[in-house]
Structures are given as structure tokens and as C-alpha cells.
């Protein structure tokens, strides 16, 4: 059965003024593929490309180029599916609105009643036969505003004159260019008003000049861990009133102590982070109110000094806990941390080993980060962000000296911990870091 190509409504006023067939891009007996521009149609506002949504053979053009005032839903051409016999045109009866040729027949044939004259606002004949020589007979009335055939063609993007600063390109041409990685700025349009059409893109591709296909955005499904992190940290940042305290710690003595310990026992090497955990534990013992949580408008104070350490994983991070850190020696803390980190990265931690804790340390010094502000790990009241140590000039005894400086920032929940308490804790931590032997004396 022939496929009807109807005049589409390309602008709000076309129902009154109709449209003009400016040019047929396809001739009779030409093959038509989906997306091919088959015609250009002019309205009162613009010239627009008409792209096919069907494929087949353009069997009959019923409205010639240059014809104006073609009503909306007017049959303008017929297309046959490939392989379909042309004899289907001989006895074809349209179920759509009338062809403009029928209007001419009304005007030239006085036997046709005047109330059957066809315009965009008057009743028109829909029951007409289309033969191979395009002769049309009119029998019954039908409004020119009848519904468009579901197999009609689709229109391209609007072509308006005077558009500056924007590349004029048809939707099909744009899609092909994007899929093939063609920079449309390199193309010269041969369509109306310089619009780039499908043929321009294909010609460019045939020339062998190609640009790299643009990378496409991707959507990544996140793990349950990442979802929990997102939820908890969003709640923390929204609901916990953070404030921040920062100190610079001179760590020359701390580094020397670490080196001495490691030279004494090469099988049990400690890290700066192990010493930081111990210093934080002693500071929490001095100021136990730091070791607390704001829960249901009450402050819960913890009896044990349990310190969480942030460990980066492929899907996020986890915070295994060094329990009773104040009661453990440096070597014991070091071995425990290594074990916790190893099992955290292999997914073998038990829930009680990473759930809880009263204080968190997040150390990004190994990544070269000088300083940062960490988000509190609820329901804890504090998290300490540790940066990398770097040699810097400082003033010592009225002289400029070079020292290894490490910047530490404490994020504090102001509901449970005030500024003065946070400052006292951080100053105690600084003293232990800068005089690490004191930790061994107190432990003894």
C-alpha cells in the first residue's frame, strides 16, 4: 500500500496560509532512506527541511516545486515500499486530505459544485483516486485539518535567516556528525541559507578527514558502601555545626624518633601515623570531653579511647578502630594498624572492628596534601586532618631556621565541644608531636 506524504504544520499560522514547496530533493523513482531530506518547505517564518521516517521509492510527486498555499495535511507525494508494484498507484484511494491538483480541477471544471472548492478553511474532498498519470476525481467532503497519516515524513530543524553565532545544521546531519566524531565547524553547508545537511557530513567523511569521536558521559552504578558514605557525610555536613582549628607542628624530633625505632628493629617498622595515633590518644586522656558524641540532645562521653583511622578503598573509605589506643605501645599500635588496613582492603573486617570509635584521624600526607578540612564522622564529635610534612623557614630564638612542619586541622562538632576545649586538645597534641619522648615517659 502506498505511503502518503502529507504537508505538515510547520508553524502556527500554516493552517491559514498553507506552505510552499520550495524544492524536491528527491525525484520520482529515487530511493528514499530514513532521515533523507526529500523536500524543502517554506512557511511565513522559515524554510525547513522535510526528512523521511520511512524508506522506499518516491513513486509520485503530486505537488510541483514553487507551488504556494498548499494546505496542512494536503497529500503532496506518494511513496512505495521497495519491491512494491507500481500498479498499486492505479487504484489507490487516499484516506487523507485532498491533493492541490483537485483544487485546480474544481476551479477549471464548472460541473463541480462551488461549495466543494478547496481552501485551507473550507471542506475538501478526501475520497479521490490517484492514477499513474496523477488524474484525480473528487467525490466527498473532508476538512483540510484532518489528522496526519501515521506514516508521514518528519521535518528537520527550522531554517531561519539571519541566525548568527549558531551553526545551522539539520537534526539528522547533527546526529551523524556526533556519532562519527565530526567537528561541524569544519563543514560547509550546501542547504538553504548555508544549513549543513546529511550530504555535507557524508561528503566530509568520504574525504578521509576525521576528528576523534567525542567521549560520552557515563553513568556509574555506585556500591552500597558509596551510598552509605554519601548519606552519612551529607547528613553530617547538613546537621552537624562544624568549626575548624589548625596548628602547625614541627616534626623534626618525631621523624628522628621514628627513624631510631626502625633502625633498632627492622622487622617492626613504625610510621609517622602510628606516632600520631598515640599522641592523639594521650591528648584525649588529658581532655576526655573531646571523646564524646551529641545524641538526642544529650552528650555521651566514652570511657575508652578508641581511635578510628580513615583507610581509602577502591569504592570509598572505611574507618577501622584502634581500641584502647592510650594503653598500647607504639609497636603494638603499628602492628594492629597494619593488620586492620590489610583486612580492610581485602574486605575481611568484622563489623565491630569498624563500627564505633570516639575520634577519627584522616591522614593524606602520603598524597602530598599540605592541609585540608575533614567532615566529621557521625556520631563522633571530632576528626583530625593530617597533612604532609615539608621543610619551611621558621623563627626560632630570634633566628630563621629550617624545620619540618606538618599542618593539622581539627574539625569539631560545636554542639558537644566548644572552641576553647578544642584548642586545648590541639595544643596538647602539638606538644606530644613536637616532644615525642614525653609519650614514652607517660606510658612508662
Topology:
Layout: E1 3-6, H1 14-17, E2 20-24, E3 31-32, E4 37-42, E5 47-51, E6 56-61, E7 75-80, E8 92-93, H2 100-108, E9 123-125, E10 129-130, E11 141-143, E12 154-159, H3 171-180, H4 198-206, H5 224-239, E13 242-250, H6 252-264, H7 272-286, E14 292-295, E15 298-301, E16 307-309, E17 311-313, E18 316-318, E19 321-322, H8 330-345, E20 359-363, E21 382-396, E22 399-413, H9 419-434, H10 437-443
Parallel strand pairs: 16-20, 20-21
Antiparallel strand pairs: 1-7, 2-4, 3-6, 4-5, 5-12, 6-7, 8-10, 9-11, 13-22, 14-15, 16-19, 17-18, 21-22
Can you describe what's shown?
It is a single chain. This protein has 444 residues and is α+β, with helices and mostly antiparallel strands. Helix content is 26%, strand content 25%. The chain contains 10 helices and 22 strands. A 6-stranded mixed beta sheet has the order 13-22-21-20-16-19. A hairpin with a 2-residue loop joins strand 17 (311-313) and strand 18. Helix 3 (171-180) packs parallel to helix 4 and helix 7 packs across helix 9. The longest helix is centred in the middle third of the chain and has 16 residues, at 224-239.
Total count of helical runs of at least 4 residues: 10
**Oligomerization category of the chains in this entry:** single chain
Mean pLDDT: 80
N→C terminal distance: 99 Å
Shape descriptor reads elongated
Helix content: 25-40%
The gyration radius over C-alpha positions equals 40 Å
Q: Which strand order spans the largest sheet, edge to edge or round the barrel?
A: 13-22-21-20-16-19
Low-pLDDT ranges: 97-165
Query: How many beta-strand runs?
Result: 22
Helix/strand-derived category reads alpha+beta
Approximately how much beta-strand content do the residues carry? 25-35%
* Biggest pleated sheet: 6 strands, mixed
Amino acid at each position: 500500500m502506498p505511503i502518503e506524504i502529507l504537508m505538515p504544520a510547520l508553524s502556527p499560522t500554516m493552517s491559514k496560509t498553507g506552505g510552499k514547496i520550495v524544492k524536491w530533493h528527491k525525484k520520482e523513482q529515487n530511493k528514499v532512506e530514513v532521515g533523507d531530506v526529500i523536500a524543502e518547505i517554506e512557511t511565513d517564518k522559515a524554510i525547513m527541511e522535510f526528512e523521511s521516517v520511512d524508506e522506499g521509492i518516491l513513486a509520485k510527486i503530486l505537488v510541483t516545486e514553487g507551488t504556494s498555499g498548499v494546505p496542512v495535511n494536503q497529500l503532496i507525494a506518494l511513496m512505495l515500499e521497495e519491491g512494491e508494484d507500481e500498479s498499486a498507484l492505479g487504484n489507490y484511494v487516499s484516506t487523507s486530505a485532498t491533493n492541490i491538483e483537485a483544487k485546480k480541477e474544481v476551479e477549471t471544471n464548472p460541473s463541480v459544485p462551488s461549495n466543494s472548492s478547496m481552501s485551507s478553511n473550507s471542506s475538501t474532498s478526501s475520497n479521490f483516486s490517484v492514477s499513474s498519470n496523477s488524474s484525480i476525481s473528487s467525490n466527498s467532503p473532508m476538512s483540510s485539518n484532518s489528522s496526519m497519516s501515521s506514516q508521514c515524513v518528519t521535518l528537520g530543524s527550522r531554517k531561519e535567516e539571519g541566525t548568527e553565532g549558531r551553526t545551522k545544521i539539520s537534526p539528522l546531519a547533527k546526529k551523524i556528525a556526533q556519532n562519527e566524531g565530526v567537528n561541524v565547524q569544519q563543514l560547509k553547508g550546501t542547504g538553504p541559507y548555508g544549513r549543513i545537511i546529511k550530504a555535507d557530513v557524508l561528503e566530509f567523511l568520504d574525504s578521509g578527514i576525521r576528528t576523534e569521536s567525542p567521549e560520552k558521559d557515563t553513568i556509574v552504578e555506585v556500591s552500597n558502601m558509596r551510598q552509605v558514605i554519601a548519606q552519612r557525610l551529607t547528613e553530617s555536613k547538613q546537621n552537624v555545626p562544624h568549626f575548624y582549628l589548625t596548628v602547625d607542628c614541627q616534626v623534626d624530633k618525631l621523624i628522628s624518633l621514628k627513624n631510631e625505632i626502625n633502625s633498632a628493629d627492622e622487622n617492626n617498622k613504625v610510621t609517622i601515623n602510628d606516632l600520631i595515633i598515640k599522641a592523639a590518644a594521650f591528648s584525649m586522656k588529658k581532655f576526655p570531653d573531646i571523646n564524646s558524641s551529641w545524641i538526642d540532645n544529650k552528650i555521651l562521653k566514652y570511657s575508652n579511647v578508641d581511635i578510628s583511622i580513615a583507610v581509602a578503598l577502591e569504592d570509598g573509605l572505611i574507618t577501622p578502630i584502634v581500641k584502647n589506643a592510650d594503653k598500647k605501645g607504639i609497636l603494638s599500635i603499628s602492628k594492629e594498624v597494619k593488620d586492620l588496613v590489610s583486612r580492610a582492603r581485602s574486605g575481611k573486617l568484622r563489623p565491630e572492628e569498624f563500627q564505633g570509635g570516639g575520634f577519627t584521624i584522616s591522614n593524606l600526607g602520603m598524597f602530598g596534601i599540605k592541609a585540608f578540612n575533614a567532615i566529621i564522622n557521625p556520631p563522633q564529635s571530632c576528626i583530625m586532618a593530617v597533612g604532609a610534612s615539608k621543610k619551611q623557614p621558621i623563627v626560632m630564638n630570634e633566628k630563621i631556621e629550617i624545620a619540618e612542619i606538618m599542618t593539622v586541622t581539627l574539625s569539631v562538632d560545636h554542639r558537644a565541644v566548644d572552641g576553647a576545649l578544642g584548642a586545648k586538645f590541639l595544643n596538647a597534641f602539638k606538644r606530644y608531636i613536637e616532644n615525642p619522648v614525653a609519650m614514652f615517659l607517660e606510658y612508662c
